[in-house]
Amino acid sequence: MTDDNAPFWRTKKLSQMTDAEWESLCDGCGRCCLNKLTDEDTAKTVYTDVGCKLLDGESCRCIDYPHRQAKVNDCVRLTWRNVSRLSWLPPTCGYRLVAAGQDLPWWHPLVSRDPETVHEAGISVRGRVTASEADVPDEKLTDYIVSWPGKWPKGARGSTPPGRAKSRAAAAPRKGQEAARQRAGKGK
């Protein structure tokens, strides 16, 4: 039995999505638009905090999305065929999560219905892009290597914002905590 009310990313394969559904999987974080390097020793991708010349660091969106590939020769168009093979996609990427059979987290605009939650959760590059690739020569990119784009920010995983989860837990102390308070004479 299928749930007719389930969101499309839980019921469709990436290859079955409409163009609008596909585009909406982008959370607008801008992490994929940061310049990346490949570590020669480990072959791992390392991120920099240098943005693509078309990245708007405030909106975290491409300023010329329809023509990006003509203007940026190494801009990669994500497709359902390549998304699983692109190891440089950040771990928080909606395309990457759905391709791996995972659900979208609470801050994703499709879940929260608010495009600002991606910024509030610390996922986006807003305020973290230190330079544009137009201003940084390739040989200087190693001076801008950062680790945060390859990590999940604290509290960003899961289906509930951290503040909501904590308030529920604080309102209902565990039995052991209540017993300890009673023994200490601080509770009923």
Q: What string gives the helices and strands in order?
A: HHEEEEHHHHEEHH
Mean pLDDT, to the nearest integer, reads: 86
End-to-end span in angstroms? Answer: 49 Å
Structural class: alpha+beta
Q: What's the main sheet like?
A: 4 strands, mixed
Dominant shape = globular
Total domains: 2
Helix fraction? 25-40%
Helical segment count: 8
Show unreliable segments: 165-188
Radius of gyration: 21 Å
Strand content: 5-15%
Number of beta-strand segments: 6
Attribute tags:
globular, 11% strand, 6 strands, 188 residues, single chain, 8 helices, two-stranded antiparallel sheet, four-stranded mixed beta sheet, 2 domains, alpha+beta
Quick recap of the structure?
The chain has helices spanning 8-11, 19-24, 68-71, 94-99, 109-112, 117-120, 162-171, 175-183; strands spanning 34-38, 45-51, 55-56, 61-62, 131-132, 145-146. The protein has 188 residues and is α+β, with helices and mostly antiparallel strands. Strand 1 (34-38) and strand 2 (45-51) form a beta hairpin.
